[in-house]
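Sequence in, structure out. Go.
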Amino acid sequence: MTGDTGNPQSRGGIPPYIASAIVSAIVLVLFAPGLFVAGYFTNALVDDEDAGSAPPAQPTAAPTATVQATATPPIIVANVSVDDDPYWGPDDAAVTIVEFSDFQCPYCARFFLETYPQIKQQYEDKVKFVYRDFPLTAIHQYAEKAAEAAGCASNQGRYWEYHDLLWTKQQALDEDSLKSYAADLGLNTDAFNGCLDSGTYADEIQNDIQEGQSYGVDGTPAFFVNGQFMSGALPFADFKAVIDAALEGKLPSSAVPDAAAGSG
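Output:
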C-alpha cells in the first residue's frame, strides 16, 4: 500500500512556492493600477501646494520719464487799439487796460460786480480803462442792441452811468427796457430812442468785434493790460499782479489810440 509521505508532488498537487508566486502575481495585477493612480494624485497635490506657496513673480516696473515743468509765457499783443471807445483814467497813464465785453454775458457781469470796483478804487488815477464791445450775438440776442444803447447814452455824456446800470439790469435788455433805462437816467429820450432805432452805433460795434478777433479774442470778458492778454472773470489779485508789473515797467506799453477817446 502506498502511504502519504507529506510531499505535495507525491500527491499530484501544486508546490507551495509556486502557489505563493501565483498569489503574489494576482495581487499585483489587481492592486498595482490603484497604487499607481494614488501615487500620481499624491505627487500632483504636492506640486500644486508647492506652486501655491511660491512667491508670485513681481511685475517689472515700466520706465518713467522725468518731465521738466516750464512756465507758459504770457501772450503779449502789440498795439492793442483803444479806438475811440469810452474810457476812464488819465489820458497819459502808463498802464492801459482794454476790455472786450458783452452786456449779456454772465461772466462779464461777475467781473463787473466783483473785480471791476476794486480795480477802479485802487487804480483810477494810475490806469486808463477802455471798454470795447464784443457781443456774442450767436448766443446773446440782446447783447448787440445793449451795446448800441450804451453808445447812444455816450452821445449825451452819460456812457458810464448807463454802462453800470446795464450790468444791474442784465435780465431785461430788450429794446423797450433799454429805452426805459435812458428815461430813468434823465436822458433826452427822443434823441436816445432815435439813435437806438436807427442803429447809429451798429458799425462801430462791428469794428470792435473785428479788431478783437484780430487780437485773438473769442470769448468774453477778455482783457489786455499793456498788451498782456487775460481771459475770463479773474479775481482782483490776478489783475493786481499784472497791473503792478506794468506800473513797474515790466510790461511794455502797447495800447495805441486810433483817435481821441472821450471818457463819456
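Check: The mean pLDDT is 79. Residues 13-47 form one domain.
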